[in-house]
Amino acid sequence: MKNVNLAVLALLLCGGVHAKESDFAEKVYVDAVKQIAEMQDNRVTFSDDVIITQGTIKIKADKVVVIRSGERGAEVMTAYGKPATFFQILDNGKPVNAHGDSIRYELKNRLVTITGNGELKQEDSQVNGDLIRYDIVKQKMIAESKGETNRVKTVFLPDQVENFDKPADKKQDK
């Protein structure tokens, strides 16, 4: 997917971490069992074990629907699965994993939305919610939950966990 920036969601969790810029200069490859192009509707649907790669970005889904308006760069891409997954290596070398029932990316608006059992995980933090929305331009994330708990869950790992397997003389000073 061209310019898929879901990993930027991790900015709020990781402070100053940036998506791997070189990924967005790479070609986008889509591998699927089936592709249906509906030219009059400007829609392409990829289905059955869809894998999208662009640099270090990897998206896996049961189905991906790409809708293009008349304007170049205004595509809306939506990945569906149980779950649809996203993976990227950031500039600092840390991986970002995300998943949900659907992952929608509006290229022109730079808006990423994960819906249904959403989770965004970076090495030292994790956010769970029914809806995770990220405005890339404003660098603003909103996470919401609906249903029985109506709660969004965020986990930050303490330094002790990060240093657990290091010798005592190599642990970070407080």
From TrEMBL:
A cellular component annotation (GO) from this entry: outer membrane-bounded periplasmic space
InterPro entries per UniProt: LPS_export_LptA (IPR052037), LptA (IPR014340), OstA-like_N (IPR005653)
Keyword line: Periplasm, Signal, Transport
GO molecular function: glycolipid transfer activity; lipopolysaccharide binding
Subcellular location field: Periplasm
Biological processes, Gene Ontology terms: Gram-negative-bacterium-type cell outer membrane assembly; lipopolysaccharide transport
Main location: periplasm
Family annotation (Pfam families): LptD_N
Residue span(s) of domain Organic solvent tolerance-like N-terminal: 29-140
Functional summary from the UniProt entry: Involved in the assembly of lipopolysaccharide (LPS). Required for the translocation of LPS from the inner membrane to the outer membrane. May form a bridge between the inner membrane and the outer membrane, via interactions with LptC and LptD, thereby facilitating LPS transfer across the periplasm.
Entry similarity comment: Belongs to the LptA family.
HAMAP family with a match to the protein in the record: LPS_assembly_LptA
Record's protein name: Lipopolysaccharide export system protein LptA
Organism the protein comes from: Aeromonas molluscorum 848
Gene coding for it: lptA
